[in-house]
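Hi P.,

Sorry for the delay on this. The queue was packed all week, but I finally got your sequence through. Input first:
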Amino acid sequence: MAFSVTSTAFKEGAGIPVKHTCDGADVSPPLAWSGAPAGVGAFALIADDPDAPAGTWVHWVLYDLPGMTSQLPENVAKTETPAGLGGASQGKNDFRRTGYGGPCPPPGPAHRYFFKLYALDTALRLKPGAAKQDVEAAMKGHILATAQLMGTYARQRR
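Then the structure:
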């Protein structure tokens, strides 16, 4: 079985509900995954928007999820070490906040949001609040598999 990540909030390539954006409650979507390879020590998640005007915009950095984890609930707390996630840490997004920051593109065409899940052979053991670049550097040589879910969102002109 291939390593894959899904959400009950939206399907691959479909629109992300307003609830999970800056126009709504701005809560993280529920995610679930299956087919992780043997030997996973930890998972890391990076969600970003490559269509942002200033370049790729980071919406969520989450790392050191225990290897036996297979899902994230909706509305993960926006704290450095959210309760119930086995000691996982969250980094800073490009809104300069900890945890999830939902889609918030300028009005116009839909942007694509990639939720990329990395199966790692070990925990990264970075301090809470790490940036995407730090997580990516720490993952080098430790990625066993990757899976991603892509959703879209467009804001209406007001």
